[in-house]
Amino acid sequence: MQHNLVIRGHDLSAIQTPQALAEKTQEKGIHNLQFALNASFPDLRSDQVAMNPGMGTYFKNLFAKHEIQIALLSCYSNLIHPDVKKREEILRKFESYLRYASYFGASMVASETGSVIPDLGYTEDNFKDETFVTLIEVIKRLVKKGEEYKTMVGIEGGLNHPLYSVEKTKELLAAVDSPYLGIILDPTNFVTEKTQDSMVDLVKDAFSSYGDKICALHLKDYRVENGKIIPVSLGKGIIKYKEILEIVDSYKPYCYIVLEETKNDDIVTARELIEALEVQA
Fold first, then answer.
1. Is residue 281 scored above 70 in pLDDT?
2. Which residues contact 242 (CB under 8 A, 6 or more apart)?
3. Spatial distance between the Cα atoms of 264 and 262, rounded to a whole number of angstroms
4. What are phi and psi of 19, to 5 degrees?
């Protein structure tokens, strides 16, 4: 089976213009982008005031000329920021992305859940019941807007966030029952040096538990250095990508596979590794 590969636009270096991004993505043989405006073009204003139909249509048409689609429109933010005023600004920005995503040709807007400390660092306060209640309230609000604009809210979890396990993800999905809430699964986000051998089982568990809600998979290779998980380009680490892709294929054919942290020329190598699996199959 062929795979619907995606790269993050900001994993391509030295990109100065939208035209260059389109050309470089096409050169790599990739047809889908996870597009973060502020990451790819930091000098381009992309807040809630700046977002507009013209901007979305411009990028959609430009990328289409190069056979590229915006698969995920990124609005990665601290959705549970402890400063209520700052959180409101963040949520309004996300809502504006939901409003204009269709003009970009994107079916979803993506973010992690965030942290109760401003710098997104580690704190056990993220695991408190009251923090999870706040997260549910935030996601309900965003999903309501997603339903209004017919755009999916894609949420990604991780060990340092309130959405830190398969079980907590199931709790969120039970609390926010909507076809416009999707889960972006990044299994590397959920493992440590001690638990990384169980990653394939984690992926199996996630797909068997809420596979109908998974809207994209981040395939992030890694090494273990000094007890820490260090992301690397696909093929340069130890992730069991073949086994993971087999699970995805069995549940979600043609699901978006985001080659997160695979950069520049390594994108071609990663694509060829996955294409080799397709030939073997």
1. no
2. 277
3. 7
4. -60, -45
Calculate the alpha carbon distances from 52 to 59, 96, 189, 245, 251 in Å.
11, 9, 33, 36, 36
Q: What is the DSSP code string of 87-114?
A: HHHHHHHHHHHHHHHHHHT-SEEEEE--
Residue 110: C-alpha distances to residues 106, 192, 216, 217 (Å): 10, 24, 10, 12
Dig out the tokens for 117 from the structure.
Answer: 């400390």
What is the maximum span of the chain, computed from C-alpha positions, in angstroms? 53
**Residues 118-150: pLDDT tens digits?**
877 788 999 999 999 999 999 999 999 999 999
The residue type found at 164 is Y
- The span from the CA of 234 to the CA of 197, in Å, is 17
The answer, yes or no, to whether residue 1 has pLDDT greater than 80, is: no
The residue count of the chain comes to 281
Predicted confidence (pLDDT) at residue 236 exceeds the cutoff of 70:
yes
Radius of gyration of the chain (CA): 18
Question: In the structure encoding, which two tokens stand for residue 189, read together?
Answer: 């986000």
**Backbone dihedral region of 67: left (phi > 0), alpha (psi from -120 to 50 degrees) or beta?**
left
For 34-59, the DSSP string reads EE-HHHH-TTS--STTT--HHHHHHH
Say how far apart CA 56 and CA 80 lie, in whole Å. Answer: 27
Structure tokens at 165: 């396990």
CA 122 to chain centre: 20
Among residues 116, 115, 113, 177, which one has the least CA distance to residue 143?
Answer: 177
Nearest to 259 by CA among 96, 104, 31: 31
